[in-house]
């Protein structure tokens, strides 16, 4: 069975500083990998998705993620964080041929002034 | 285009009561699913459907029933609510496998 680990429950970053959120996955085949963001009281919004091709994926809101097969990782990055980026971030993996996802437990991003 | 609509947004139940969480999408998506979100647990899959008349269990199906009589609707039924079912429930849909999930805004359920 597939699984996702997000090692950091909370991360605090100063506004304007760079951000990296960690995600490790377990899946026997080539994974479909996603990052979603959830603002308080809201549903989830897709930031970006990876399946194949270029291992550096660009998403919305200035986010990017890098797939590293050797490390089973799919870390999310942003060069300069804005206060509006404060939210909970979820990494997820999908099995080939399925519409459902297995989510990590999430990382709460706090942005300090 | 409304997307995925969930009703109600909030609900309080007493232990043993039954209720149905409604989910409707207007995007003609074949694939629909229900997740529950608990603090520190992420989202966990309850049930999913790959088309009208076809449903299957996810990771945490106990205590929940689903049916899919139309492409648009995918209701989630709690037959006898328990405090352990206190959670936020999200419905999602997608137009194909391994594609983006469109999420509803969620239903916050409390079982006393």
Keywords for this entry:
heterodimer; A: 113 residues; mainly beta; Immunoglobulin-like; globular; B: mainly beta; four-stranded antiparallel β-sheet; 0% helix
Report on the structure:
- The complex is a heterodimer of chains A (113) and B (112).
- Chain A has no helices and 12 strands.
- By secondary structure, chain A is mainly beta.
- In chain A, the strands form 3 sheets. In chain A, strands 2, 5, 6, 10, 11 and 12 form a 6-stranded mixed β-sheet that branches.
- The mean pLDDT of chain A is 94.
- Chain A is globular.
- Chain A has a single domain, classed as Immunoglobulin-like, CATH 2.60.40.
- The mean pLDDT of chain B is 96.
- Chain B has 112 residues and is mainly beta.
- Helices cover 0% and strands 52% of the residues of chain B.
- Chain B is globular.
- Chains A and B meet through strand 6 and strand 11 of A and strand 4 and strand 5 of B.
Short description:
Helix content of chain A is 0%, strand content 52%. Chain A has 113 residues and is an all-beta fold.
Largest interface: A-B, 24 and 26 residues
Q: Helix segment count of chain B?
A: 0
> Nearest-angstrom radius of gyration of chain B?
13 Å
Q: Please tell me how large the radius of gyration of chain A is.
A: 13 Å
Tell me the CATH topology of chain A. Immunoglobulin-like
Strand runs of chain A, count = 12
Distance between the termini of chain A: 41 Å
Tell me the β content of chain B. over 45%
Largest sheet of chain A: 6 strands, mixed
Shape verdict of chain B: globular
| CATH homologous superfamily caption of chain A | Immunoglobulins
Helix run count of chain A: 0
Distance between the termini of chain B: 36 Å
- Total strand segments of chain B: 11
Number of domains of chain A: 1
CATH class of chain A: Mainly Beta
Low-confidence stretches of chain B are none
Assign the CATH architecture of chain A.
Answer: Sandwich
């Amino acid at each position: 069975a597939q699984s996702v680990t997000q090692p950091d429950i909370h991360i605090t970053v100063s506004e304007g500083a760079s951000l990296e959120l960690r995600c490790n996955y377990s899946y026997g085949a080539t994974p479909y990998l996603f990052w979603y963001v959830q603002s308080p009281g809201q549903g989830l919004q897709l930031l970006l998705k990876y399946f194949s091709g270029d291992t550096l994926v660009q998403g919305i809101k200035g986010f990017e993620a890098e797939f590293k097969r050797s490390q089973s990782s799919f870390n999310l990055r942003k060069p300069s964080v804005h206060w509006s980026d404060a939210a909970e971030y979820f990494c997820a993996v999908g099995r080939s041929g399925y519409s459902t996802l297995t989510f990590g437990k999430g990382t709460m991003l706090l942005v300090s002034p | 285009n409304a997307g995925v609509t969930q009703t109600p947004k909030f609900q309080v139940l007493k232990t043993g009561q039954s209720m149905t969480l409604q989910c409707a999408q207007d995007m003609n998506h074949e694939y629909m699913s229900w997740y529950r979100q608990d603090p520190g647990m992420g989202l966990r899959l309850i049930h999913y459907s790959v088309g009208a008349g076809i449903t299957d269990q996810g990771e945490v199906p106990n205590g929940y029933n689903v049916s899919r009589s139309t492409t648009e609707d995918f209701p989630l039924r709690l037959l006898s609510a328990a405090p352990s079912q206190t959670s936020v429930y999200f419905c999602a849909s997608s137009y194909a496998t391994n594609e983006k999930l469109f999420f509803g805004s969620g239903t916050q359920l409390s079982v006393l």
